Amino acid sequence: MRISGGGAHAEIYENLDELISEKPTNGAVLISFPEGGVQDLNRQMALAGIYLPIIVFADRPRAADIVRAAHDGVADFLEAGFSSEELIAAYDYSLRFIERNSAALLTRQRAEEQVSNLSDRERQVLAFLLEGHSNKSMGKELNLSPRTVEDYRLNALRKLGVASTSAAIRIGLEAGLRPAGCMPEAGVRVTALS
Questions:
Q1: What is the three-class DSSP state of 31?
Q2: What does 83-132 look like in DSSP terms, one character per residue?
Q3: How far is the C-alpha of 86 from the C-alpha of 116, rounded, in Å?
Q4: Tens digits of residue pLDDT in 1-51
Q5: DSSP calls for 129-143
Q6: Facing residues of 56 across strands?
């Protein structure tokens, strides 16, 4: 595929570690749609201070993959076999996408980074806080004493770098944390059947 026309240039990286070590400051990231989505890619790039739009591609993408990618902050999604014109159009769109959404995306990426530093139980307590639960009601739901819940809450606030529960709740909302009713119990993994 030729994309060098009009001053375009593609830099190819072997893996994410190489991209992070190079720390590009402009352009966009083009990547084959990872099986687990791009949330982890976004998180790792944010941890490295790389805030570039992401364009993904896949063979015959399913609608669910495209929706998940959009929720994860992908700027555009292409079907494999795309032309150079389609890639350039996706790149142009991704730049406009970042211009319009950069503040919101940066806020979400930073919040996701902060929430990822919480333990499963701390994240679960934060999810209950999103619903307005007290330490006592969380303790009943989690089979923990209110004092233990308080310890998890305080540890979460410390790790999030905030002094108030309301600030922690704001970070949880910005990160897209699901309410407690949608969260699996700490340590429990959800397996999908095919």
A1: strand
A2: -HHHHHHHHHHHHHHHHHHHHHHHHHHHHHHHHHTS-HHHHHHHHHHHTT
A3: 35
A4: 334 455 567 788 888 888 889 888 888 889 888 877 787 787 788 778 787
A5: HHTT--HHHHHHHHT
A6: 31, 77
Q: Which amino acid is at 169?
A: I
Q: How far apart are CA 177 and CA 96, in angstroms?
A: 27
Hey, how many other C-beta atoms are within 10 angstroms of the C-beta on 172?
23
| Residue 45 CB burial class (10 angstroms; 0-12, 13-18, ≥19) | buried
User: What domains are there in the chain, each with its CATH number?
Assistant: 5-106 (3.40.50.2300), 117-182 (1.10.10.10)
Q: Which amino acid is at 112?
A: E
Q: What are the structure tokens assigned to 76, written together?
A: 């555009």
Phi, psi of 29 (to 5 degrees): -100, 125
Q: What pLDDT, in 10s, does the model give residues 88-122? A: 899 888 888 777 777 777 788 788 889 999 999 99
In whole angstroms, give the CA distance from residue 119 to residue 88: 41
Produce one character per residue of 122-161: b if its CB has 16 or more CB atoms within 10 Å, e if not.
bbbbbbbbbeebebeebbeebebeeebbbbbbeebbebbe
